[in-house]
Amino acid sequence: MMPAELSDFILKTLCQHQGCLDYKQLCLAVRRSNANGATDEILRSVLNDSTRFVMARAKSGKVLGSEPSPDTAVIVAKTALRVCPSLEEDCDSCSDLHLCRYFVNGGCKYKNKCKHTHDLDSYHNTVLLKRDGLLDLDKVELFQLLLQNDTSLLPNVTELYKLMREVWDIYWGKYILC
């Protein structure tokens, strides 16, 4: 397996495992894939691609150097690709995916009446996915990668806090009233 093919395989494998794997599990997956010629040296050189992978310690989360320790390293999938925050017709030569952020999160309530596209295979999106080497990822794998890299896809903390506060008040209000 050539380094580019190995890199694509590792990225896909990480996305299939919620975006990360510890170093030992990743090595095992590479060996099982019959990656001919994928020595530890080649694997480490592929993992040094900071545009696609981050090596972190499992417990402290600190970034390691170029030499992962098999006992403590977690490999995390990474991409610079983002979801466009505006409507498709508002973009001129946009380099972000044109997708509904709620669709990526797995729950757009507007479905086919949504103002944002749910078409992953549009010409614009296909060009960007091909450019970034993500065309071989299926929808679930791609969305996993986007969700862990694009902070604009995260819920609004203020709204989430208000909701949790309401639940808290309702729950504890029952006990206070009794």
TrEMBL record:
<keyword id="KW-0863">Zinc-finger</keyword>
<feature type="domain" description="C3H1-type">
    <location>
        <begin position="99"/>
        <end position="121"/>
    </location>
</feature>
<keyword id="KW-0479">Metal-binding</keyword>
<dbReference type="InterPro" id="IPR056226">
    <property type="entry name" value="WH_PARP12"/>
</dbReference>
<dbReference type="InterPro" id="IPR026693">
    <property type="entry name" value="Zc3hav1-like"/>
</dbReference>
<dbReference type="Pfam" id="PF25261">
    <property type="entry name" value="zf-CCCH_PARP12"/>
</dbReference>
<dbReference type="InterPro" id="IPR057602">
    <property type="entry name" value="Zfn-CCCH_PARP12"/>
</dbReference>
<dbReference type="Pfam" id="PF24356">
    <property type="entry name" value="WHD_PARP12"/>
</dbReference>
<protein>
    <recommendedName>
        <fullName>C3H1-type domain-containing protein</fullName>
    </recommendedName>
</protein>
<keyword id="KW-0862">Zinc</keyword>
<dbReference type="InterPro" id="IPR000571">
    <property type="entry name" value="Znf_CCCH"/>
</dbReference>
<dbReference type="InterPro" id="IPR036388">
    <property type="entry name" value="WH-like_DNA-bd_sf"/>
</dbReference>
<dbReference type="GO" id="GO:0008270">
    <property type="term" value="F:zinc ion binding"/>
</dbReference>
<feature type="zinc finger region" description="C3H1-type">
    <location>
        <begin position="99"/>
        <end position="121"/>
    </location>
</feature>
